[in-house]
Each structure stands twice: as C-alpha cells, then as structure tokens.
Amino acid sequence: MAKHNYSFYPGCSSQKGASSSNQLRSTQTICEELDIQLNEIPDWNCCSASIGYAGGGQLPRLALSARNIALSEQAHPDQDIVATCAACWLATREANDRLNENSTLMAETNKALKEGSLTFKGNKKIRHMVEVLIEDIGYEGIKKPIKKPLEGIKIAGYVGCQTNRPFGINGESFENPVYLDKLIATLGAEPVEDYDKKVSCCGGALMFSEPEKSQALVKDIIESAYDGGAEMIVTPCPVCQMNVEVYQEQINKKYGTKFNIPSVYYSTLMSVAYGRSAKDAALDGQVIRAIKLEEIAAK
Amino acid sequence: MSNPVTVEKYRNNFLREVEANVEEGDWVKRCMQCGVCSGSCPLGPHWEHPPQELFMMIRAGKRDEVLGSSSMWMCTSCYNCIARCPRELPITHIMHGLAHYAKRLGLSPKNQQTKKFAQKFWDNLSKKGRVNELKLGLSLYFMNGFMEGVKMSLKMQKVGLGMLKTKRMSPFEMLGGHGCKDSKGLQAILNKAREIEEAKISKFQG
C-alpha cells in the first residue's frame, strides 16, 4: 500500500477523451513518484461546477456534491477527499461547509439522498491536490524525485481564481499567493517575479457564452506573462489551462498579437523534472507544444 | 391557497422575498455600499447594475429591474468579490441565486447567452450524471439557431481540431459517452431535492 492514500474525485473533464485528461495522466505520474495513491470515488457524479445554477437550484446542486461525499464516506471512510480540478474541489468543499453549518439544508439534503439510499455525514476534509503536495509531501519531499531540474526556463505561475478563492491554500494570501512560484523554483526553473495577473480571472465558463469579453481577460493574462519574460505559463486549474492555451490564435486575429506560449499543468512540469517520458508528462496533450519540456524529456 | 392581498403586500417587499427565496439572500441587507465588489469584478464594466447596486435596488423594491437584469449572468465565479468584501457577503453565491430565481420565475432576459449555456450545462450533467463535453460544446454552438451554429462551428474548427489531435476531445462521446452507473438513483435524488425546494419557494410565493 502506498504511503499516502486519498479518496479521489477526478471530475468530468479528466475522463478519457475529455479536456483535462492530460492533467489526470500527469497527476498519476507524479503520484507514482511521490508514493501517493488516489482511490477513485465509485460512481462519482458531476459537481455542476459554478455554472449549473440556471437549471439547478441550491438544493439539487448541494445534493450532487453530497452524493459524492456520501459515496466516499462509504468506500474510503478514513481518507480525505482530494480533487485535482479547481471547480470540483470548490463545489465539494462549499457543499460540505454549507451543509455542516446549516442543519435545515443538511436534513433536506439527506432526505433527497435517501432516494439513492445514501447518507451524508460530513466529517471529511475536502482537499485540493496542491494542498496534498504542499502540506503532506512538502517542498523538500517534492524535490526528492527530481532527476532533471528545469534549469534555464522562465515560467509564469498562473494561479487563477478557484484554487485561490474563497478557500485558497493555507497560509497563502488571496492577492499574491506564492506557492506556485515556490514550486517552479523547487523544480529548478525560474518563476516570473511580480506576475501581476497571477490571480486574475480567465473568464471561466463564460469563455463559452461571452467569448469576446473572456478573451480580452486572457489577452491580459498572457501579455503580462510575456512582459515578465515567461516562456511558458503553468497553472493548477483545468479551465485556466484550456482558456489560456486554446484561444491564442483567435486572440491574435482579433488583437494583432503574436501569442504562442504553452500553458501547462504543474503536474506536467513535475513529471518532466522527475525524468519521466513525454507521454507520462502528457506533453502530447499540449495544443501549443511545450518544446523546451519535450527537449528535456527526450534527454 | 394564500390570500392575494397578502401576496401583493408581500411582493412589495422584495427584500423579504429575496431573503426567503434566493440562495444566501439573507445577506443582502448587510451590504454597506462600498463598491469593492464592483471594482474587483473581472467583467465589472459589462454589468448593467454592479452587485452593490443590485443590493440597493433589492432594498428599494425594484423587483422587475433586478430580476430582469442581465447583470448577475455576468458573474464568472472568480470569487474576487467574496474574498474582498469587508462585510463578508457571499456575493458570488447571491448572484448565482438571483440568476436562478429570475430564471425560475421566467423573468430573466430572453436571449441571455450565459443563461442559455448554464441551462444546457445543467441539462447535460443531470442526464447521465456526468458532463459530456462534446455534446455540450455542439449544443452550445447551435443554441442560437442552425445558421449561427454552422458559422460558430467553422469559427471554432481549429480549436476543435487541436483538442481532437491531443485526445482532449473524443468523437465517441457522441455515442453515449461517460456517465454514472446509477444515473437513475442520481436522478431520483435530484428530483427529490427539486421537490423540497419548490415546496419551500411556493410557500412564500402564495
């Protein structure tokens, strides 16, 4: 059995053929290196992210997360729940907090869960993978498996919104969290200093419904990374990763910019630094290829 | 059945209606009108009425203007307002709550794009318990009619191809795709939750 065991909530976009399947692959790689075992919550469902509210009222949305937590309580009673997706983590932790704070909502949610023969107890911790890395493994622990330090690469640590607010990582500030910069430095690369857009919003799900407004936000996020001398952007969030990566050509067309900067997950960076293959690091999942990382992985 | 006179009286007090029926609505009265939320919002310039204005309008009983506004549909769920509000109002959640309530009553703007997308997201996930990104994306392109859909698909062709090539999108999702095994159980849970919520709201609506 692995040293660290967690009840894992992978989320819809991590599934095979989905938009952040590359995040899951690279996460599995770093878990192998760090002796972490992620035990998937059986038959988990969508958390409704932060956009299900048009159709789903408060109680149905709480019930979605409560079902996942209840399933985890059954299958992995002694393990914290861990999510890699910012929205999954946020929705689950919010539901857990709100139900524990409000006995009426708790009773109503459990009444609904009964229809699926489930009960929510609510005594679990809901954690983000980044918390696991920083709190349970620690920067020293993260350093240990490094075989190929990412020397000579300048990287903008784009934390984004939902990994940072309203909960964030313990001990970090909302306005200027530094854990991602520290992680970049731990891996041997150089973080962009004073990256002023590190906690700015990429538009989230509104990239789909308000593309022009959201692309204007992404333009600033990328521009600021370039201004800081970055060769790539790293992020913990699936929505940030995709929004910052895949619309660059459309943004270039509209604004006359010449953006072509890779946007990668921290787990991809770590996998490469740990000496793993391009495939294990999910570098083949890059729409804008991270050539420098490919070169290091091929060495 | 409640007395229509009471209902009329009640409706005049929009703040009480929001407190009773809108998610986290009981926080609205605590807003001190500092405007930090509006200044912190990434889409701030695009709001018809920024959050602190909505809060004041609720207190002033401007029911139609608030519920018919496109404002709360501009929320990107970045949580900046929550992190910065000096009075710790859960503004993001109140915006989601107002949007949901307006839609439930049929008062939200007809062609609001985020409203349409958010509904499609919910329909997509509640069908099988998990989001089918391919079907969601396609239904999104075509949500404003067929011709618009063709135009949109052409515009997004390169983005789609990039996702296909990197195996971050799969055509096989069209045939069923991912889902919960116990999607029946999940739907029973959701139906019950909806039923409980509706009963609560109708109690206040009369």
**How much strand content do the residues of chain B show?**
under 5%
How widely separated are the two ends of chain B?
A: 7 Å
Oligomeric state of this protein: heterodimer
Low-confidence runs of chain B: none
Q: CATH homologous superfamily of the largest domain in chain B - what is it? A: Alpha-helical ferredoxin
User: Roughly what is the average pLDDT of chain B, rounded to an integer?
Assistant: 91
Which strand order spans the largest sheet of chain A, edge to edge or round the barrel?
A: 2-1-3-4
Q: Give the CATH level 1 class of the largest domain in chain A.
A: Alpha Beta
- Give a short account of the largest sheet of chain A: 4 strands, parallel
How do the SSEs of chain A run, as a string of H and E?
EHEHEHHEHEHEHHEHHEHH
Explain the overall architecture:
The complex is a heterodimer of chains A (299) and B (206). Chain A is α/β, with parallel strands linked by helices and 299 residues long. Chain A folds into two domains: 4-128, Glutathione S-transferase Yfyf (Class Pi), Chain A, domain 2, CATH 1.20.1050; 147-298, 3-Layer(aba) Sandwich (Rossmann fold). Chain A is 46% helix and 10% strand. Chain A has helices at residues 21-34, 58-75, 86-101, 103-114, 129-143, 179-186, 206-209, 211-227, 238-246, 248-255, 266-273, 291-298; strands at 4-9, 36-40, 81-83, 126-128, 154-157, 190-191, 232-235, 263-265. Chain A has a four-stranded parallel beta sheet, with helices on both faces. In chain A, helix 2 (58-75) packs across helix 3 (86-101), helix 2 crosses helix 4 and helix 3 (86-101) crosses helix 4 (103-114). The radius of gyration of chain A is 19 Å and the shape is globular. Chain B is mostly helical. Chain B folds into two domains: 4-109, Fumarate Reductase Iron-sulfur Protein, Chain B, domain 2; 113-194, no CATH class. Helices cover 59% and strands 0% of the residues of chain B. Chain B has helices at 4-12, 14-21, 36-40, 51-59, 63-67, 80-84, 91-104, 113-128, 133-141, 146-155, 157-165, 183-205. Chain B is globular, with a radius of gyration of 20 Å. The mean pLDDT of chain B is 91. Chains A and B meet through helix 2, helix 4, helix 7 and helix 8 of A and helix 6, helix 7, helix 8, helix 9 and helix 11 of B.
